[in-house]
Amino acid sequence: MKIAGTKFKTEELLLCLLISIFFLLLIIGAKNFEPTARFFPYVLAIPGFVMTLLYIMRGYLPPKVNDVIRGAPAIKESKELSEPARQLKKDNEKRATIISYALFIAVFLYIVVSYLVGFYLSTLAFLLIHLHFSRSFKPKSLLGNIVLIIVLLGMVYLFDTAFGYHFDRGALLSFP
Predict the structure, then answer these.
(1) Residue 2 backbone phi and psi in degrees, to 5
(2) What sign results for the dihedral spanned by CA atoms 112, 115, 116, 119?
(3) From CA 123, how far away is CA 134, in angstroms rounded?
(4) What angle do helix axes 39-56 and 10-30 make, rounded to 10 degrees?
(5) Which of 43, 59, 147, 149 has CB atoms 3.0–4.6 Å from 5's, for a disulfide?
(6) Residue 15, CA atoms < 13 Å, CB-side half-sphere
(7) For the chain, what is the total number of helices (H) and then of strands (E)?
(8) Residue 6 forms beta bridges with which residues?
(9) Closest to 16 (Cα-Cα) out of 72, 65, 58
């Protein structure tokens, strides 16, 4: 889909629209708060809404503004790609799509497993799975992995106690 000469994938445009709607609802919902309580939602939502709209409408912006938004000068794509380069680009796009869907499924499973067995066990399990798939779980980096696990579970414990929630047991483990 094209907006002002900028080509968007359907998923990218839908995600931008959902994020824009989220920020807009946050702005509207914050109007019901006390004046001092509005500050944080406004600080978060107003710049987020503006940046999302700038991203969607970047085709209308001058090239120098686009360079600032992207953080680097825009690289013009050559229309005459060789066949291997075209195939490599297609393979990379397919791989990125698969990774995106896999991450979505992993986050969904993390939420479900956290609910069922508790935040600590699910965090530990998903950290071990991440270390396994990222090939970081090697004998020579074992000490670093142990420190990472201890620090992460310590942060989860601090989060747990700071907010007064008790994530130690999930729905399956909380029966007497």
Answers:
(1) -110, 135
(2) positive
(3) 16
(4) 150
(5) 59
(6) 8
(7) 6, 2
(8) 3
(9) 58
pLDDT of residue 118: 79
CB 49 within 8 A of CB 23: yes
Q: How far is CA 137 from the centre of its chain?
A: 24
**Cβ atoms 162, 110 nearer than 8 A:** no
Q: Say if pTM beats, i.e. exceeds, 0.70.
A: no
The yes-or-no verdict on residue 150 having pLDDT over 80 is yes
The overall longest dimension of the chain from CA atoms, in Å, is 68
Given a contact cutoff of 8 angstroms between Cβ atoms, the answer to whether 19 and 48 are in contact is yes
Per-residue pLDDT tens for 79-124? 666 777 777 878 888 888 888 888 888 889 988 888 888 778 888 8
Mean pLDDT, residues 172-176 taken together = 63
Residue 49 has pLDDT above 70, yes or no: yes
